[in-house]
Amino acid sequence: MPPVTAQQQTEIEAQRVQSASTRRATVPALEEILYQALPVLDHGFVRVIDYMGDDSAVVQAARVSYGKGTKKVNEDAGLIKYLMRHWHSTPFEMCEIKYHVKLPIFVARQWIRHRTANVNEYSARYSILDKEFYIPAPEQLAAQSAINRQGRGDVLKGEQAKRVLDLLREDSERCYHSYQEMLNENEQGEVIDASKQGLARELARMDLTLNYYTQWYWKTDLHNLMHFLRLRADDHAQYEIRVYADCMLETLKRWTPLTYAAFNEYRAGAAHISSSGLAIIKRMLNGEKVSQETSGLSKREWVELMGTLDRPA
Known about the structure:
single chain, 313 residues, alpha+beta, two-stranded antiparallel sheet
């Protein structure tokens, strides 16, 4: 099933043909995809619904100027890099963006830990959830990692993989059937058996599995969006939330390209080194042979440091 229904697509197209004159800053590259559903996973999507500000708003806030001024683009880029490099976050908080996201419930519960946003989620107390659930692609069906309690190991193969996929699909189908029976309503809200009373929606929803899809509006400022993306667009993040972050990273690139470049330079593409780690690097640059035993670091800290330096542990 596509991420949006035919009716939803008609509504999106109606939104996309509307236009309005404004004195506020607009970003043509982001306007190109405004309201458009960008597919993620099997039934999910990300949509940019609204935004406020652009790169020049960051610069304007930093300079506390009255308008764009006469600074050149390279000067604006230099200032944004300076702000990012020195962790001056408040100018980035002057820009905001609002997303409409459709995502599996278990991804939403992980995502909601980022508390620096305004969120309004689809309510299963008032509405009936659609029969849409996430089934991993075979290449994402991994075993539990033997060395990382919250990571994945080797991909499952053959009959074991098939059995897991069958269980996921069968359990999801059965739970939705039970959900409808308890509600005594179908997906359209029509009564199934007029001789029976349906269970309250707020109670019936508890029988659904965490791979069912929910939706929400998620609004945040540019600073906190980048914090989310730094953590969730990282290779160490869970795949199912990382693909959403990757999609949103592309919207950031369209919205604030100068900030995006600085983000890649000083956040996403950078590394955090502890004071002890920095001292070890200085010792190594001075020609000293340092081992884990002489470093003063724990085994895990040593492995992480050597991984950052792309050196054998």
